[in-house]
């Protein structure tokens, strides 16, 4: 039995320890310190061995980006990490977090063996148990439920971004007969805009490398998003002096972030008005006839007025924009001057190829889907869908299917139960049930809804805006099993912790990733044997699945075996090539049009050997897909008037209370905080941001972003990342508030002094950073700080901005509305 | 007794036959050494590449791609090596490499790049890769493919859409069409059956020229586009494996490799084998009828191919004679003098010249020459000497001569 005692680290201690460790490393010794807990067996190996150097290629697991890395090992002990130059995502580049992966591997606060809760939930008292005891206890919980046909009482929250792990988790849940599979918000796709116009759930790929003019509506692609290093590579290509004419990058955002500071022009805009600005630009394209008439005529629907099957007239996008989004009106909404709107429209219409992109600031708002849709339609207006320098869609990877599950009637019945939380709150139009809807259902319904919850690599208590509901739900559910590496905020409230391998100790698949112009698979492989008594999450699922529903459904010896099957499917497809120094896209294309594959392997064994050695596979073919594949709408065309939305709203409205369909429809829209009605609703339009806070009480708007050094808070386990967390503005080991000098003056705030930020949700304290690169009236903060339980480096460092953010979602996709909460600020008075 | 006589008057003991015999032995010995060392050496016969594609890495890593494109992909300072393909022996390509060196030296200076030095292995890989490009063929032409299928007799047994024999296999519904050579291999494997059917039906055997198979393949691929097809790409051939297949499949039974071997069919060195893989496959198909008749008569089974066997065999045929014939030491000596090598490199002191270089194969010589280009380029400018361009034969003879200068171990 043990109490979880942690010796917390301050910045001063960190700098001292870092100095000592560096000194020790220079002297050729490993140091067992507060920074790196290198186990005794590893230390002994290091002192006994001859100092043989080897390099191993694998894939970084610090964020969903999936960069290829090369790990330098001395006598099999990893000591250094750099980018794998062959890997197509990052081509040798990596972010700071990849460099400090050793701080995750040897982190002194990793859970080193399975733990069982002692005392009440959340107290943080644990006893050590063996894996046998741990897995038996899981099995004892699962089997009675499954045998009674109550598999639906088992739920899972998965945050592991490995596509194979996601597939296995869903397969596992289906096998036990549970519909209650939830995914972490980090795994959400940025695809609603494409879905509205094209009926497919694909994330658009921007061919930035070939664009001449990039109109960026809030995407901080150099720092956030799925793969910042990939976009950093593209950005450096944009800036290469070899190009005949430099591409122009215009950043439209309320704050200058890393991408904005590298742009040619920054257009400050009111948060949540990106859609309105893009419609203003559409207006300029229309009145100056700068749009692609041929593309519009042949490939789109709803641009011009039309009559439906009931002979009802619809105005179409062109007339709608002309009537509602003229520059003067757009300037009023967005705060962007009319002359700038006109200039942007003309530039966008005349620079070829141009592309309009959107994410982050324009996405994580209550009107994110409508804003992004309006931006996306600009691309159709200039006809750059599947054109060089425009928009593409990630080509598919060779298919891989897990075996077909033959479910008995009892399991099928269990599976047909409604998902827990689907009756709570507002039904999302395109999104799934959220984790906090699930939690609200658990705490608001007396029934024993869920008996066992398995959480895989997800920390909803820390990231959610509805923390208390999730905490209460975890307390109410009898058995909560946590699969992770640290006793984080969520793990603390669980019954068991099953410690898992770090990504440097496991075998897994990374990719395919949406948003890339090629399809690829990265291979994560162990660079060191597990240093603690941990397991791979996939192995836990396979072992427990075998004992719960039978080995026949899990015909793999281990998760590694499943990874091998995935690689076999790649080999058998004959597509693409193992990444190598000679597998550049042009050469693969050269061979492909002649019917050849890159001659790298004759057998699966040699294919696997090369893939393991080089770290990945890719297929950089021409990404152009057939029109019928990318326009899967009712009209078979790109839709400015979304029949997809029309249909989805109709289906959702059926279950809404109301005496007439019109009443149901209106109630549904009101509950979603959507103000538009009629044709306006089904055309790209601007919706006003929704916030609980009253403007009179909370006059400022809060915007947030992730940092390259911390992402959603995972970087907080690494002391070097906390040291670098605000390196651009000179902040270390703390949170800060970015505020415009005028706004700071108005509220009496001073640079580097503490201030309160308060919303209708709560209040936090952080240091003020007066910054002219932010619009007046805005407060900006970084996500991922303020852990209350995340080891000695993360705990108590900074403030968690999600404590302020209202629990709102985008009206269509259930993407969290992280931006746009109304707040107020005040000075922290000395002695208060 | 003899000892005594010899001891007494050794000078008087003249034995004419012994003298003649000894002289003959000495002369033969000297002759052997002189003539023997004049016999030029080339690579061992089995020293052909197993994966010529690996040279692509050298092509990229050494920066050749920065100036030379392959079919439009790459730099445009130099000629596109995919379009302006060159095919001969190793020496033909090595000669081109050498002759373009001064131009390249100027460009590397201008671009402030380091001279890309090469190891023997890298040079071997690079040259065999460039040599291999023609083998890989061209993308097919869909309209040519359509017209070929319609004009050949294919549609008498097969069908495409509503054209052709209604009961025949629908060529537009087959699943695997990506590789032209895959099609060639399938056609070859059912050659005897096809032959019988054609004879029974009185159909003329279709003959394939140049890129006919490639065009047909492109047409079939276009027809199946958008269908749930499973692409079947082949590995380009492995010449080394192909050399074994040449014997295993019985080709060597009729086609001699060496000049002194009897040959029922055409000798390999009499054929034009430096063509694309599908062109060679077409030639093989075209002689199938004669081959089938002979084999039937002699009771030999028709050789079939699986996997990448056909590609391997054709790659071997393509690489046949890659090394070329041995050079002539005397001519090489003249080249050495005429090209002014002697102005800088001593010939009288063999070891002084050869001691620092290793000439086990011609690649070693070309590598040494290549790596000293920057120094030599500066020197020829300083001394106002013309860059000594070398024809393939001159390079071959030069190697033979320099090899002759190296003492045997």
Main beta sheet of chain A, described?
8 strands, mixed
What is the number of helices of chain B? Answer: 22
Count of β-strands of chain B: 4
Q: Quick one: CATH class of the domain at 115-188 and 409-513 and 535-563 in chain A?
A: Alpha Beta
Largest sheet of chain B: 2 strands, antiparallel
Widest sheet: strand ordering of chain A: 1-6-5-20-19-18-7-8
Low-pLDDT runs of chain B:
1-13, 27-45, 349-355
Beta fraction of chain A: 15-25%
The coarse overall form of chain B would be globular
Structural class of chain B: mainly alpha
Mean pLDDT of chain A, to the nearest integer, reads 91
Task: State the distance separating the first and last CA atoms of chain B.
Answer: 43 Å
Give the CATH architecture of the domain at 115-188 and 409-513 and 535-563 in chain A: 3-Layer(aba) Sandwich
Q: Which range does the strand content of chain B fall in? A: under 5%
Order of helices and strands of chain B: HHHHEEHHHHEEHHHHHHHHHHHHHH
Which quaternary structure do these chains form?
Answer: heterodimer
Biggest interface: chains and residue counts? A-B, 23 and 35 residues
